């Protein structure tokens, strides 16, 4: 039971972590001009293999927010595009500002309580650093946050690329940035390698439990097992062999090696994880980075507990099988 609960929590944290970083994050300390952003969108339409890429432009600023009753400090995330690519917020009421929708914002529950003393905030007026917004949504967060819609000509510091496509993501994004003339002033953050490693660690308990079950079943087969059970196991293995190639084809080609025996591919995985972690720590942290680090910590703790419980279960099964033999 403890193994199942810990494993479920670890998988939940893994899902939250993947929601924070859709694919490739482009960070800059200098705002990118509206003309450069338009050039980037034009390059997206022309670049082969990038047509399925979708950009979301955003910036983050610390400032003060003022309602009719109270004033408080707030982290304002200004964006143009899909909100969930910018910050993985869980909506409670209303909606998030649509792409290029000026003058609307969604606020966190923490900000709502500080500014209005209530979560009944839809339709309220909010001033953030001199700009007026109408609250259209409420999302859950213990931090004082506001997600504010802006038009593309506002100018943004960061870009999130998301979507599915066949081309390698980092190389494709680099080509797009060069075409738009902004490749020199930005940092590319591709967290996929270390998130994949953490997810694999979180999934280890399931593998350990299956291995323990297989050992138990193997012991029963050696001692004599009903034919129905044997046919069931063989049928399950045959079905898995049929389904596995189809499941592997669902993965983007840039994830899988050209040949599974390509040792240079597997040898490059660990350096890729290290580079992604190093880049992540070198970034000036924003709200989504802080949230991702908390999710990473929760995942590591829950996955470690689940792995320990699964290992203990596997050891007890092995001892029981040895005793029966």
Question: Could you give the count of β-strands?
Answer: 10
**How many whole angstroms does the radius of gyration measure?**
24 Å
Helix percent reads 40-55%
> CA-to-CA gap between the ends?
27 Å
Let me know the largest β-sheet: 6 strands, mixed, barrel
Strand content: 15-25%
Oligomer: single chain
Determine the number of helices (DSSP H or I, runs of at least 4 residues): 10
Mean pLDDT: 79
| Strand arrangement, major sheet | 2-3-8-5-7-6
Which residue ranges are poorly predicted, with pLDDT under 50 across at least 5 consecutive positions? Answer: none
Which overall shape is indicated by the principal axes computed on the Cα atoms? globular
Question: What is the succession of H and E elements?
Answer: HEHEEHEEHEEEEHEHHHHH
Structural class: alpha+beta
Total domains, how many?
A: 2
């Amino acid at each position: 039971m403890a193994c199942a609960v810990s494993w479920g929590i670890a998988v939940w944290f893994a899902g939250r972590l993947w929601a924070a970083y859709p694919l490739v994050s482009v960070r800059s300390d200098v705002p990118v001009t509206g003309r450069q952003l338009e050039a980037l969108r034009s390059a997206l339409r022309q670049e082969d293999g990038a047509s399925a890429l979708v950009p979301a432009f955003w910036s983050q600023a610390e400032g003060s927010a003022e309602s009719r009753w109270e004033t408080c400090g707030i982290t304002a995330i200004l964006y143009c595009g899909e909100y969930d690519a910018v910050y993985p917020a869980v909506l409670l009421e209303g909606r998030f500002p649509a792409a290029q929708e000026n003058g609307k914002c969604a606020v966190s529950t923490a900000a709502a309580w500080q500014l209005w003393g209530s979560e009944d905030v839809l339709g309220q007026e909010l001033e953030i650093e001199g700009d007026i917004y109408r609250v259209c949504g409420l999302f859950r967060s213990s931090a004082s946050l506001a997600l504010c819609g802006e038009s593309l000509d506002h100018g943004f510091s960061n870009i999130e690329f998301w979507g599915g496509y066949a081309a390698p993501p980092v190389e494709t994004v680099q080509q797009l940035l060069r075409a738009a003339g902004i490749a020199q002033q930005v940092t590319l953050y591709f967290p996929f390698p270390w998130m994949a490693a953490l997810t694999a660690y979180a999934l280890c308990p399931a593998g350990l439990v299956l291995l323990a079950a297989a050992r138990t079943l193997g012991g029963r087969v050696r001692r004599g097992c009903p034919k129905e059970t044997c046919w069931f196991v063989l049928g399950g293995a045959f079905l898995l062999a049929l389904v596995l190639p189809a499941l592997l084809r669902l993965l983007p080609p840039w994830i899988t090696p050209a040949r599974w025996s390509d040792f240079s591919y597997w040898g490059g995985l660990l350096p890729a994880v290290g580079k992604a972690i190093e880049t992540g720590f070198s970034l000036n942290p924003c709200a989504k980075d802080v949230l991702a680090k908390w999710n990473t910590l929760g995942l590591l703790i829950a996955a470690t507990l689940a792995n320990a419980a699964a290992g203990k279960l596997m050891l007890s099964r092995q001892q029981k099988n040895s005793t029966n033999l």
